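pls design
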């Protein structure tokens, strides 16, 4: 379930040497989530959750392995169900293979797990074209002006940045009626799809969709909340149709799940069915179905 979204006003200066070939980073897929290893300052093998739904990066204060950090300020963390004030550390260095980013700001959040050491947000992805390949289990960081990327078989879509949150247009159908809007792309969430509370209330989705269960989640702000899980009969995404998708209906009154600017958020249980290329500079995103397409939700 989605735990957080960070609104951080941080300037990230990127110290990257121009490269002709992409930087290739292997990843592991654990419980639908993507994990990579980086070096932070002088500490190597820091395990990060790759999260396109976080515009800032995080160090988990409950992690077994933490880098040396200098705490020098505070930030506002907006979770899925609320907000809270957290400490941060600036002027850090992150290294992935031959790629290095300097002056990185980390928010410090104590998650209820030590399974990962930090969160790799979009602040560390921008400045590159990001290719996520679930067949090879690798992420390629291409130069923004690369001409060697293979787009064969991909569906191109407009990438909308909603308050710095990446989103695409999508729609789903219930009882013959189509519901459409902007949907956030949240690789840090391990569910399939969450519908934002204003969109769910406006369209009375709890009354027209079949309830199949319930889900409990804890936000990065510390709040614990319960949501009904309903069944979505048909959904259109990147010109493909998917069927019988479990969807959680948010009832949040604050936090990112209470936004009126997006209809909902795709988690990585859904997104992992598509290899993805993200071009932040041109605000384009590309999707291609992969071997996970027919796996059960």
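designed seq:
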């Amino acid at each position: 379930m989605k735990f957080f979204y960070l609104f951080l006003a941080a300037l990230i200066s990127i110290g990257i040497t121009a490269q002709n070939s992409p930087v290739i980073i292997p990843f592991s897929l654990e419980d639908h989530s993507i994990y990579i290893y980086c070096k932070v300052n002088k500490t190597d093998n820091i395990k990060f959750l790759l999260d396109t739904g976080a515009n800032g990066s995080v160090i988990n204060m409950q992690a077994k392995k933490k880098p040396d950090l200098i705490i020098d300020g505070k930030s506002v963390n907006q979770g899925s169900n609320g907000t809270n004030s957290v400490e941060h550390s600036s002027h850090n260095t992150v290294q992935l293979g031959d790629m290095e980013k300097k002056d990185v700001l980390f928010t410090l959040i104590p998650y209820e797990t030590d399974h990962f050491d930090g969160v790799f947000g979009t602040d560390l992805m921008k400045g590159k074209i990001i290719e996520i390949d679930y067949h090879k289990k690798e992420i390629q960081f291409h130069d923004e002006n690369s001409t060697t990327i293979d787009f064969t078989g991909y569906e191109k879509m407009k990438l909308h940045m909603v308050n710095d949150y990446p989103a695409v247009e999508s729609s789903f159908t219930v009882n013959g009626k189509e519901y459409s809007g902007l949907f956030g792309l949240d690789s840090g969430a391990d569910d399939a799809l969450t519908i934002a509370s204003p969109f769910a209330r406006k369209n009375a989705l709890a009354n027209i969709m079949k309830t199949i269960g319930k889900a409990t989640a804890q936000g990065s702000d510390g709040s614990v909340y319960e949501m009904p899980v309903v069944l979505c009969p048909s959904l259109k995404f990147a010109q493909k149709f998917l069927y019988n998708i479990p969807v959680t209906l948010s009832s949040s009154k604050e936090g990112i799940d209470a936004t009126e600017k997006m209809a909902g958020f795709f988690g990585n249980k859904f997104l992992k069915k598509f290899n993805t290329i993200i071009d932040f500079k041109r605000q384009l995103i590309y999707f291609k179905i992969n071997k996970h397409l027919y796996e059960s939700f």
